[in-house]
Structure formats: C-alpha cells, structure tokens
Design brief:
The chain is mostly helical. The chain is built from 5 helices and 2 strands; from the N terminus they run H-E-E-H-H-H-H. The radius of gyration is 14 Å and the shape is globular.
C-alpha cells in the first residue's frame, strides 16, 4: 500500500511479515515463517503499537514518523533509550536490546526479502 509519497506502508509490511506471508519483488509468494504468539505481540507492539493500551506511544513507527524509510542509526539509539514498560517504568537494558533487534529485524526483512533498502 503506497502512501501519497509513493512509499510502502510499513504497517502493512509488518502485518504480512508477522503473518508469515509476503510477496518477493519477483512475484514469488513466501509462506512458512512461524512466529510464536509472544513474538508477534512484542514485534507488533514495539514496531507499530499493535494491541498497546490507550495513550501508549512508545512504538517505533510513531516515534520515527515520516522518517520511517530515511532514519539514521542514532534515531534507533535515541528511541531505545526513551522506552518504558507499559506501566511507565523504565525498560530494562535487555528489553531495550530486544526492541532494537525488532527494528533491525524488520528492516532486514524489508531489504533482504523485499529488496527495499532504505
């Protein structure tokens, strides 16, 4: 789903990725990635705020906004440093590391599987 600026919709890409089905640039449909429910929840929450409680705005897509395809590594570092748990308490270092891994995993998928490097 391209936006008005002709950029792909990151939320649509994320939903297909977490569903385990997407189409490569050559038209080949890929199925079979098996995410467990916890991983789908965590990636969905951290990347797009899926199933987040009302008022929680800690997800990557909200944080980065229009720069979603044009961010710099420091943006990820800044975002991770600001992350809190759902109750507002500071997120532990290991959890921040998993959040950074989720962002990197998403963009790796975009680049390697979809041929859409930023």
């Amino acid at each position: 789903m391209p936006s008005s600026t002709n950029s792909p919709d990151p939320r649509a890409i994320l939903r297909r990725w977490l569903a385990g089905a997407y189409v490569r640039p050559d038209g080949q449909e890929v199925r079979g990635r098996a995410w467990d429910e916890d991983t789908r929840y965590r990636y969905g929450l951290l990347l797009a705020g899926i199933d987040a409680p009302a008022g929680w705005r800690g997800d990557w897509f909200t944080y980065i906004g229009d720069l979603v395809w044009h961010f710099e590594p420091l943006h990820i570092q800044d975002w991770a440093a600001r992350l809190t748990n759902l109750d507002g308490s500071p997120m532990a270092a290991a959890s921040r590391g998993r959040a950074v891994s989720a962002v990197r995993g998403f963009y790796t998928h975009c680049e390697e599987d979809l041929g859409a490097a930023r």
